[in-house]
Design goal:
The protein has about 400 residues and is of the alpha/beta class. It folds into 2 domains: about 130 residues, Aspartate Aminotransferase, domain 1, CATH 3.90.1150; about 230 residues, Aspartate Aminotransferase, domain 2, CATH 3.40.640. It contains 17 helices and 14 strands. Helix 4 packs antiparallel against helix 14, helix 5 runs parallel beside helix 14 and helix 9 packs parallel to helix 10. The model has no long low-confidence stretch (mean pLDDT about 95). The site of pyridoxal-5'-phosphate has 14 residues, from helix 6.
Length: about 400
């Protein structure tokens, strides 16, 4: 290559795109596992979806309480479209605030036991509130395994970001000691999205109190799932009142899309007037708001859903462990099964889908600490579904000498 063309190549910012060949390598092997097409759900209250015209048992959805296929939630969304139309065409601050946004905020504040709440159009954007909260000469202190939206929200702030080893309280304490005289906030996932383990929110709250730090807990995967009322890991650990900000999404147990932050009135008022993803984006559409409101009502009134969810999750986790799979310990509906080799992982996923008609999620590093099949359970799964999954996994696990 001539010197001139070498220089042209180096100056072309698209060069990295041409060198990014991993997806096409997996496509050539027929093992590319992403962007699979779903064509609908089987019926109401069913964990089966339709793919390629066939019924597939869904074990890869964050629809923890099964409410996306609940007739009451669907009806609420349809009614809202009839009343408000399909979109709001504007920011909350200008023409995009509906009476039902305010109603949902009030209902959520009461549910999570905080003074005030603010809803955003997605959960990802909700964690953008951290960029407003952390400013110059202030510190965001994050667990190493927090969700990408927290990383994005904090790194786009003007503050300084520090990380501590996953769920490691002594590592956190040594950071807090160094920053004892600085303004700061500790940020964690209540339930970690990939590994499914729970943050020790009680210990976090104790350390934050000791070192004068605020505490922000992302309850995306805990809401509707953990705690007596279903508020999440903070409630489960008995310290809901000690957490300064509870964050949640509507894309999981709430059967919708959107998110919220909840905390002291003045803090929420500040976020409302300073958070870019809140101010400069169109508000959450009415059908999504109505679906989330109906889901909240069901979460409050039907605790048996989360009981069944945790029961089925534990059956699957125990059975897979008994079969000698490398399964993460835990109690949540997220069950990661480690499969180190990425080609075997793709083959395992593909066999489960094509031969057994079961959908799970293949996850690769660095999205998680290990390469894994991530199983997600729903309240509409029963013991029979659990048995189908476990038997299929044992069959394929033996084929690839994983067990
Ligand atoms: C812990 C956590 N926070 C935030 C989000 C973003 O939420 P959403 O997908 O609703 O935008 C997710 C999504 O997976 C998540 O797992």
């Amino acid at each position: 290559m001539s010197e001139k063309s070498q220089k042209t190549e180096r100056l072309d910012i698209f060069q990295k795109c041409y060198a990014f060949t991993k997806p096409s390598e997996f496509k050539k092997m027929g093992l590319y596992p992403y962007f699979k097409e779903f064509m609908g759900v089987e019926t109401e209250n069913s964990p089966y979806v339709i793919m390629d015209g066939e019924k597939v048992l869904m074990f890869g959805s964050n629809n923890y309480l099964g409410l996306t296929v609940d007739p009451r939630v669907k009806e609420a969304a349809i009614d809202a479209i009839k009343r408000y139309g399909t979109g709001n065409s504007g920011s909350r601050m200008l023409n995009g605030t509906l009476d039902i946004h305010l109603a949902l905020e009030e209902e959520l504040a009461e549910f999570v036991e905080k003074e005030s709440t603010l809803i955003f159009s997605t959960g990802f954007m909700t964690n953008g509130s951290l960029s407003a909260l952390i400013t110059r000469k202030e510190f965001g202190i994050l667990d190493k395994n927090v969700h990408a939206s927290i990383v994005n929200g904090t790194y786009s702030s003007f503050g300084e970001i520090k990380r501590f080893r996953h769920n490691n309280m002594s590592d956190l304490e040594s950071l807090l000691k160094k920053l004892v005289d600085e303004p700061k906030i500790v940020v964690v996932d209540g339930v970690f999205s990939m590994e499914g383990d729970i943050a020790p929110v009680d210990k976090l709250a104790e350390l934050c109190e000791k070192y004068n730090s605020r505490l922000y807990v992302d309850e995306a995967h805990g809401l509707g799932v953990l705690g007596e009322k279903g508020v999440g890991a903070s409630e489960y650990c008995g310290v809901l009142d000690k957490v300064d900000i509870i964050m949640g999404t509507f894309s999981k147990s709430f059967a919708s899309t959107g998110g919220f932050v909840a905390g002291k009135k003045d803090v929420i008022e500040y976020i409302k007037h300073n958070s870019m993803p809140f101010i400069y984006s169109a508000s959450m559409p009415a059908p999504s708001v109505a679906a989330a409101r109906k889901a909240l009502e069901i979460i409050k009134n039907e605790p048996e859903r989360r009981k069944n969810l945790l029961k089925v999750s534990n059956i699957i986790r125990d059975e897979l462990k008994r079969a000698n799979f490398k399964v993460y310990e835990g109690i949540t509906p997220i069950i990661p099964v480690v499969i180190e080799d990425e080609v075997i992982l793709c083959k395992f996923f593909q066999d489960l889908l094509v031969e057994e008609k079961i959908y799970t999620n293949p996850i690769f590093m660095p999205a998680a600490e290990n390469n894994m099949i991530r199983i997600s359970c729903m309240a509409i799964h029963n013991e029979e579904h659990a048995e189908i999954l476990v038997n299929s996994m044992i069959k394929i696990g033996k084929k690839y000498n994983l067990i």
